[in-house]
Design a protein that fits this description.
It is a single chain. This protein has one domain. It has 4 helices and no strands. It is elongated and about 85 Å long.
């Protein structure tokens, strides 16, 4: 990205000379004082807006934090339920270990799940497309 519109040192000097010619040396401190007060007032106004914004959104932030903690608790509860039903060592994709998964099918140890898998294989495929694993392994 080129910096075409940034002023250089010579342009600053020209601007200062023009300001001196237009306003005179005596009025420049007054102009600087007014600009300083204006900047100070602008800063106060922006701080006030930020404060009001934070006051009005604190309830929303609190609700979001509560919802997030509730959802995280529910996720942990679901994980515990799945681990107790399938066994703690059942992790076909090794998600808990952070390892990459392979595309092989998980090992099914119970006969109930084997029967469902065999029954799903015997089903006729209606329409186009593959059968998903959710269709094969149902509770």
């Amino acid at each position: 990205m080129t910096l075409l519109f940034l002023p250089s040192g010579g342009e600053f000097i020209i601007v200062i000379i023009v300001v001196l010619l237009l306003f005179g040396a005596k009025s420049i401190p007054d102009i600087a004082r007014v600009l300083g007060k204006g900047m100070n007032e602008f800063r106060r106004a922006s701080d006030e807006i930020k404060r009001e914004f934070n006051e009005h959104t604190s309830d929303i932030k609190k609700d979001v934090a509560e919802t997030r903690s509730y959802v995280n608790k529910e996720i942990e509860s679901a994980k515990e339920t799945v681990n107790t039903e399938l066994g703690d060592d059942y992790d076909p994709y090794k998600l808990d270990e952070g390892e990459e998964h392979d595309d092989s099918k998980p090992e099914v140890t119970s006969t109930k799940k084997q029967n469902k898998t065999e029954a799903a294989d015997d089903k006729k495929v209606e329409g186009d497309g593959p059968i998903s694993r959710e269709d094969i392994i149902e509770d």
